[in-house]
Amino acid sequence: MNDTFAEDVLKGLSSTPKFLSSKYFYDEKGDELFQQIMNMPEYYLTRSEYEIFSLQKGQLLKLFQRNDQPFRLIEFGAGDGLKTKVLLEHFLEKKAVFKYTPIDISGNVLELLSNDLQQNYPSLSVDPMEGEYFQMLEKLSHTDSTRKIILFLGSNIGNFGEQEALKFLGQLSTKLNPQDSLLIGFDLKKDPEVVLNAYNDHSGITRAFNLNLLQRINNELDANFDLTRFKHAPFYDPMTGATKSYLVSMQKQDVMIASLGKMICFEQWEPIYMEVSQKYDLDMIKNLADSSGFKVDCNFFDCKHYFVDSLWSL
Ligand code: AVI
User: Fold this and answer.
1) What is the ipTM of this complex?
2) CA 277–ligand 1 middle distance (angstroms)
3) Would the CB of 215 count as within 6 Å of ligand 1?
4) Which one of 9, 199, 247, 271 is least enclosed by Cβ atoms within 10 Å?
5) Bridge-partner residues for 101, per DSSP?
6) What is the pLDDT of residues 82-122, one digit of tens each?
């Protein structure tokens, strides 16, 4: 049993209001469901960022390369690297001198990605690192002074609360050198219906993605959540840009988490707060950069202005 997972679940479900951390969505089944989410017609985010990279890879390379200097592309939480491959392929074609360093806490994810890249791009220099982002950056800085370009893509920053995002980016800024840059993906505020549909798809995949965390608690902590008694309820607030997802208990019920020896009691219609997916506007992005020690150098938009990859430096 994973102790941190157990502690976090206990803390979240004993709190008022109840919450669970969306970082725990990603067990094997959760990874598979997220893969399906990225392919859904409603989930525009992945396609938007893919379009940005496909159409603006030349400009990105110019900015990364700076007078043909070598650079190291460091990706936080690379996943299957589908979008990044568009960049890698172009950079290789243009004979850019660079290394690619995906960092992930999952050795399994890194192995799959590295094998795939080696097979498809034998000339690519892949240097994966398994571990926590900042620890790995620290480790790198002892051995390598090449210009670093950090990629934090896919609106992953949107899953951080406001203070958490500030803290994360503030910490990141202290780990970088003046010549380094960060390319960070933000999902933008847009037609509220478009946003909400991305988190409330017709086929019920996002619903299953949220419910899977209750299933994970059943599997790993010997709990007895009845998934049919919880309703997936996402909301988008166009004022703040927060999309928040809840699982709402449709009836008064008690759930036993046997491995923790803990009974969790739900009132009828009581929610569990599952995830925030923050949507930004350009002022919010500039403020976030300013308050975390960065400045915005350049913004790359898709044609619909649904998404932006923002290039920051110190
Ligand atoms: C990983 N992250 C950026 C996704 C998002 O859009 O917030 C996670 C997700 N949750 C529901 N659908 C997708």
Assistant:
1) 0.99
2) 6
3) no
4) 271
5) 74
6) 889 999 999 999 999 999 999 988 888 889 899 999 999 99
Buried b / exposed e along 206-220 (16+ C-beta atoms within 10 A): bbbbbbbbbbbbbeb
Residues 73 and 146: beta-carbon distance below 8 Å: no
Distance between CA 51 and CA 57 in Å, rounded?
A: 10
Examine residue 178 and say whether the peptide bond preceding it is cis (omega within 30 degrees of 0): no
Buried b (16+ CB within 10 A) or exposed e, 31-69: eebbeebbebebbbbbbbbbbbbeebbeebbebbbeeee
3-state secondary structure of 263: strand
From the list 123, 133, 131, 78, the residue with the least C-alpha distance to 98 is: 123
Is the CB of residue 201 below 6 angstroms from any atom belonging to ligand 1? no
Across the chain, what does the average pLDDT equal? 95
Distance CA 272, CA 167 (A): 25
Band (pLDDT 50/70/90 cuts) for residue 16 is very high
